[in-house]
């Protein structure tokens, strides 16, 4: 009986000894794992770089003719001929319509006859004035008679001047019977046909000529955006030395082959829309752009030499909209950073403060780590420089 009890005690002591040794071994293994960094959370990082970029903005726009001329008659008459093809290109001075010229030719002949009569009368009154001038010196006629002769002579001179002016007016009206193109461009449809009666300075147009090479593009930009751009220029954050250019996306989604240049912006903000119209000039040699088309204008705003672009997947925002990010410091720990973001650039944020070139930004595994927690870099991506043109 005592021998059996001794065996039980020995068994209990042996079990306790085994459990103790196992616990020590487990603590030793955990310590070794901690020393080897096995408990660190694996994360993916991107090494940030600074790079030159060109900021652009895409805005709605509409094409506007470079020049537009409304063709109207300047004399009354009947249209005899139409001398152009609708939709064709015309040159300045090219005749478009012929108005019946017979009444104006008769008016010109009448004006010339009036001039001849006035000149004949001038010769008569001039001779009489000269005779009376000699007689008045000898007191052969009264002063009143001479004054009447002088007045008649001066009146004849005026009548000659009036007759010459009437001739010039008749010639101008005769020229106006030929309705010519005032500018180079493309002419639209004709609103009148042969036999139509037209009047001088009428409200209805005969036709419209537009010049579309080059062509204007009017871009509506929010005034808030323009204000931000000007502030950045004042603070020297962007370089405006290069002349800004504009590219177009057409209604079918294709890119327009030619680039345009900004010309000017309105000085007033449109109260109804809160926007400012900016005008760009584009070459249009193929005539692809027509007035009134809706397009998308991609406008270069500014160039930045040392921009820090941060992938959006590595930036978080709190309820107040404050941006923050995590980087891996030199101790392989997660270090939080508060960011000041200027704007969105494609799939990136343009960051002004909070990060620097060379920082290792954590882009995955953010949900599993806390500040100052040990991390292990599982994949270090080198940031690839973007193209010089960067869409906003």
Give a written overview of the molecule.
The protein is of the alpha+beta class. It has 4 domains: 41-53 and 306-391, conserved putative lor/sdh protein from methanococcus maripaludis s2 fold, CATH 2.40.420; 57-65 and 210-305, Elongation Factor Tu (Ef-tu), domain 3, CATH 2.40.30.170; 73-99 and 179-204, OB fold (Dihydrolipoamide Acetyltransferase, E2P) (Beta Barrel), CATH 2.40.50.100; 102-176, Helix hairpin bin (Helix Hairpins, Orthogonal Bundle), CATH 1.10.287. The chain contains 4 helices and 20 strands. It has a 6-stranded antiparallel barrel. A 4-stranded antiparallel β-sheet has the order 6-5-3-8. The chain has a 3-stranded mixed β-sheet with strand order 18-1-19, with no helix packed on it. A hairpin with a 2-residue loop joins β16 and β17 (348-353). The longest helix has 36 residues, at 102-137. It is elongated, with a radius of gyration of 46 Å. The N and C termini lie far apart (92 Å). 20% of the residues are buried.
Low-confidence stretches: 1-6, 18-23, 29-38
Tally of DSSP β-strands: 20
Q: Total helix count?
A: 4
Global structural class: alpha+beta
Global mean pLDDT:
83
Beta fraction of the residues?
35-45%
- Through-space gap between termini: 92 Å
Give the full name of the CATH homologous superfamily of the largest domain: Efflux pump adaptor protein, beta barrel domain
Q: How helical, in percent, are the residues?
A: 25-40%
As a whole number of angstroms, the C-alpha radius of gyration is: 46 Å
Q: Which H/E pattern describes the elements?
A: HEEEEEHHEEEEHEEEEEEEEEEE
CATH architecture of the largest domain: Beta Barrel
